[in-house]
Amino acid sequence: MGITRQQGYNIPLSGKMVQELIYDYYVVELPITVIGINYNIHKTTVHKTLKRYSMPVRRELRKQKALNSGLIFCVGCIKWRHPDEFNKSNCSLGGNSGRCRKCTHNKNNMSRKRALMYLGNKCSSCEKENLPMCCFQFHHRNPEEKEHTPSHYARLKDWALVKKELDKCDLVCNLCHAIIHHGSLKATEVL
Q: Does domain 5-60 have CATH number 1.10.10?
């Protein structure tokens, strides 16, 4: 059944018990909850015991080992990765973005898919459907109303801002977008 919080807190541990607890944690690498169950104490008591004897928590040891080896933590896949797997960023500490390239690509693709689905996922000019995502572009009907590029907005978490900008756009394929901007056809003729 386990022990309640009341039973497991601040139980005085014998010296031999502390040695075994530290051995189980660092050598055998048992999780703190399992150690608590084995010694019939609460996991908070295990944490406090490790702190009392100035023993770093294993998570901190892994972090320090990764930092010493030059790895960077990716918040997307929650893994330590080599710095070469990150895009360079001027705004973050250390010059690397918080997500590795793979996670950044996946996040941007999900945002773009959502924007394409919102606009119907077909060219509003030639009516082509089922094209790859890279073949579609967002064309602003009135360039003066353009605040930002929708693909930049799509990276934000606020979907209301993205929708507001997408409502000013038409979804067109690359060819139609080039024709519109070349000037050989007016946007109203194509659309």
A: yes
